[in-house]
Amino acid sequence: MGVGLGLALAIAMGGRVEGGQGASQPPVERGRYLVGITGCHDCHSPKVKGMTPDLTRALSGRPSTTAVPAPQKSEVHASLDFTAFSGPWGQTVASNLTPDAATGIGTRYNEASFITAMRTGKKPNGTMIQPPMPNEVYQNMTDDDLKAIWAYLRTIKPVRNAVMAGMTPAPAAGQK
Q: What confidence tens digit (pLDDT) does each residue in 76-123 have?
């Protein structure tokens, strides 16, 4: 059997491909890999020069200097740095995923609540995780993969950034 066919069969059958970025990696390295391939930097990292993530502020969410697009009823609009959005659902800003003690992910989540949020699409405070967050991607990950992402996020450089500055909180799940 050729390498290409073997690879296709392994993927089709849900198997992991040896020699790649497999689950046998240490959790933090696995998490770094998963954060990279699932596009977390696309929205959660401010940008320099187009869509290049500013790695000095990696995964720190919407900067206070980024204007949130005006509410839209029939279109989706994004800020130029792709950290703030508006659409039929309302307005969304990318969260600070760094371990900053005052404004980061640990102020809202622990490992268990992070996994629950990724599985249910609901934040610990009861609000729904809004577009453009690709909830479906994370809902299908294994617990080990989600734990690896959590482990990696706990190791990155803390960045103090209150992303909700100037925002109106979204209604709780089931409310309008």
A: 999 999 999 999 999 999 999 999 999 999 899 999 999 999 999 999
| In a domain? residue 78 | no
Domain count, the chain: 1
Domain that holds residue 112: 25-62+95-153
pLDDT tens, residue by residue, 141-171: 999 999 999 999 999 999 999 998 766 544 4
Q: How far apart are CA 8 and CA 2, in angstroms?
A: 10
Give me the residues paired with residue 77 across strands: 86
Would residue 5 count as lying in a domain?
Answer: no
pTM of the model: 0.80
Distance of CA 90 to the CA centre of its chain: 19
Phi-psi region of 50 (alpha: psi -120 to 50; beta: other; left: phi over 0): left
| Amino acid identity, position 157 | K
Q: What are phi and psi of 128, to 5 degrees?
A: -75, 145
